[in-house]
Amino acid sequence: MSLSVGIVGLPNVGKSTLFNALLKKQQAYVANFPFATIEPNIGVVPVPDERLSKLAEVTKKSESMVNLPPEVPATVEFVDIAGLIAGASKGEGLGNKFLSHIRETSAICHVVRAFNDPEIVKQGITDPITDLDTVETELKLADFQTLEKQKDPGNTPNKELVKWWEVVGKLKDALQKGIPARDVSLSEEETKIAKSLSLLTAKPILVVLNVDENDLSRGKEIEAEFAKKMKLDLNQIVIICAKTESELSDLSAEDQKVYMKDLGIEKSGLERLIQKAFATLGLITFLTAGEKEVRAWTIKDGINAQEAAGVIHTDFIKKFIKADIVSFDDFVNFSGWKASRDLGKVRSEGRDYIMMDGEVVEFKIGT
């Protein structure tokens, strides 16, 4: 799916270091999947998923294969968005380019500085909340300008236009009070109208706190502290030491484990960022398992079985017959498709069935 996270931040907060560490993860991904494309400001990185290796082992055994089938993970696209300074909404710096790039992303990842380093220049004191407010203010100003440019339909009998103008006014009022579009209470109809306006502050956000290495062991405590201060959900805050992530990305998997153990952390910051970005975008995965490959497919939470089949191939939407579904645990515990079917663990679902995360699926498609 073409869903991406735009990484933004003020100068010298560690954004480039973080993005370069993500690019190193992409290089490893591309080495295994040559079809993946590389662009200088885009990193496509795999979503860590331990279920795939278990599916591969079960499939190899149940299908009497010599080798394990390839594992194809879900991915998240990160976009490095340059040019943000105070005044970007007025076109200062690379303001106009910055705003056009961020408008194309599905979510925003704010990188804020929470470390002290006298060798890295920063204007003013180190204050993550002020940094976040500075960026959000520029986005709010840009959104307000977008709404100001909307043309008043006047005294029209067109009810849709009247409703559209009401929503424009509602959003303008909120922005004038400093409230981002994402926090405005809207009906389902109003939400669709707001989406058509492509407002920057309507996008879901993540905040990366770039901390000193010594603070990593207090990660959960710091995340909880700043989630409260920034009035965000815990799932929207990720503590990272960009410098450490850069060093980790140069190590082998085994050496990474040793280094992380020394630091007192179980998962790398990048791994947690990728997983939280996936959740922030409202994504889930369904799994397929066969001799050709075991794969995690990305879908929006809430879509039905017929729509999910279309993610594999668009022709599957029209030719959809049914979906055979088994839970991941049953698939693994009962060693694959055949035994799961024999034991009655596989159920057949129609086109309107709402997909759940982690289900193993086999679509039946007509000719």
UniProtKB/TrEMBL annotation:
Ranges where the OBG-type G domain occurs: 3-260
Keywords, ordered alphabetically: ATP-binding, Magnesium, Metal-binding, Nucleotide-binding
Keyword ATP-binding part of the UniProt annotation: yes
InterPro entries, sorted: ATPase_YchF/OLA1, Beta-grasp_dom_sf, G_OBG, GTP-bd, P-loop_NTPase, TGS-like, TGS-like_dom_sf, YchF_C
Listed SUPFAM superfamilies: P-loop containing nucleoside triphosphate hydrolases (SSF52540), TGS-like (SSF81271)
One of the record's GO cellular component terms: cytoplasm
Superkingdom of the source species: Bacteria
GO molecular function per UniProt: ATP binding; ATP hydrolysis activity; GTP binding; metal ion binding; ribosomal large subunit binding
Matches recorded under NCBIfam families: redox-regulated ATPase YchF
HAMAP family, sorted: YchF_OLA1_ATPase (MF_00944)
Family: Belongs to the TRAFAC class OBG-HflX-like GTPase superfamily. OBG GTPase family. YchF/OLA1 subfamily.
Function: ATPase that binds to both the 70S ribosome and the 50S ribosomal subunit in a nucleotide-independent manner.
Protein name listed in UniProt: Ribosome-binding ATPase YchF
Source organism per UniProt: Candidatus Woesebacteria bacterium GW2011_GWB1_40_12
Name of the gene: ychF
